[in-house]
Write a structure and sequence with these properties.
It is built from 2 helices and 21 strands. The strands form 6 sheets. A 5-stranded antiparallel beta sheet has the order 6-7-8-9-10, with no helix packed on it. It folds into 2 domains: 163 residues, no CATH class; 164 residues, no CATH class. With 371 residues, it is mainly beta.
Length: 371
């Protein structure tokens, strides 16, 4: 079907096609002015909806009102023929039509030509949407100001004028009829919740649950002295990489409820699949804070006493004002990667974890004694 590129957006509400208190001309292009006196009450309403593939305008019956069009009402939608599209009496003589492929079940027939868009229901009812004559007696300037960036279209149903539909611009081709049903796609599980089958999400979940080393901060001497270097080191961890892994099983795509006549028993879709995610974590730096404002960044764990540790700090004053001692903190930065079925390593977010203790420091006092 040749598309007429009219633009629209989802209005979000069902539009009543009657013009209410809007002053109408006796018909598009006429000069006699009436206040809706010559028109029957609207029998149809329109819903305009935007989809990624264009705009759909669905026409539905509002109410059933007996009677025919009043005298002077324009009759613009003749019966469609197989060799040419119907045209209003005042439309151009040229037209181009492509009819949709027929199907076995009754369906709406839609087509377009130079004058507008048509839809014929299986019962023979004809909807027709076209751009109105802007030179008519309607105050189009005021109406256009009320609907910026929108285009007015007049709707006729079975030759009867129903009203104006305002369609915002720039949203793709317009089609008469109901839009196709949308398939609801479930949202992916949140990151790291342990229920995802996405390898990266599984790796994040493992990273959240991997046990970090039980580091303890050791010092010598156990009671620090002002102006005497203190030695610091890590106990409970040797700096080696560590990690964990998890195997994820994905259920078969075809369940037992599907007959073997449709999917054979040996079809791979009847078999579960699995993959294994491995996470590796290792330290990249150690950030020491000695509680008196001094700090040290290193890649060393220090050396345990009696060896002389390379992590040292000398205090210039005692911890008298801090009864529990200077607050010592060690922040370890861990890098992380994951692999799927032993494949190439891929990066994960780094981890920063802080370990803490307290270190009392006193000032040595000289003592005079007599012999």
């Amino acid at each position: 079907m040749k598309s007429v590129l009219l633009s629209a957006m989802f209005l979000g509400v069902t539009l009543g096609l009657g013009l209410g208190s809007v002053a109408l001309a006796g018909g598009p292009g006429s000069n006699d002015f009436n206040e809706n006196n010559n028109w029957p009450a609207p029998q149809f309403q329109a819903k305009v909806e935007t989809r990624p593939d264009g705009v759909y305008i669905q026409i539905t019956a509002r109410q059933s009102i007996p009677g025919s069009s009043p005298a002077g009402a324009p009759r613009v939608a003749p019966t469609p023929s197989d060799d040419a599209a119907p045209r209003p009496a005042s439309s151009p003589t040229s037209s181009s039509v492509t009819s949709p492929a027929s199907s076995g079940a009754p369906a709406d027939r839609t087509w377009t030509d130079a004058t507008g868009i048509y839809e014929q229901t299986p019962e023979g009812q004809i909807y027709y949407l076209t751009i109105p004559d802007l030179s008519s007696a309607i105050d189009w300037r005021s109406l256009l100001a009320q609907y910026p960036n929108q285009t007015p279209y007049t709707l006729y149903v079975d030759n009867q004028f129903q009203g104006i539909v305002w369609i915002p611009n720039g949203k793709g081709p317009v089609r008469l009829g109901a839009p196709p049903a949308q398939v609801s796609v479930p949202s992916p599980p949140p990151a790291g919740n342990g229920s995802s089958t996405n390898p990266y999400q599984v790796a994040l979940s493992l990273l959240d649950r991997v046990p970090l080393p039980p580091i303890q901060i050791e010092m010598n001497p156990g009671l620090g002295l002002v102006n005497l270097p203190g030695w610091f080191w890590v106990n409970g961890y040797d700096g080696k990489p560590f990690g964990t892994s998890q195997t994820v099983t994905i259920p078969p795509a075809v369940g037992a409820n599907v007959p073997f006549t449709q999917v054979p028993a040996n079809d791979p879709r009847r078999q579960p699949t699995s993959f294994t995610v491995s996470v590796k974590v290792w330290p990249t730096s150690y950030q020491w804070s000695f509680g008196d404002g001094a700090s040290l960044d290193t890649q060393s764990l220090g050396q345990a006493y009696p060896a002389q540790s390379d992590i040292q700090h000398t205090y210039a004053y005692s911890s008298l004002k801090t009864p529990n001692g200077f607050p010592i903190q060690l922040t370890v930065i861990f890098a992380a990667q994951y692999q799927v079925n032993g494949g190439a390593p891929q990066d994960l977010p780094s981890i920063a974890h802080t370990y803490a203790t307290n270190y009392p420091v006193q000032e040595a006092q000289s003592l005079l004694t007599s012999r």
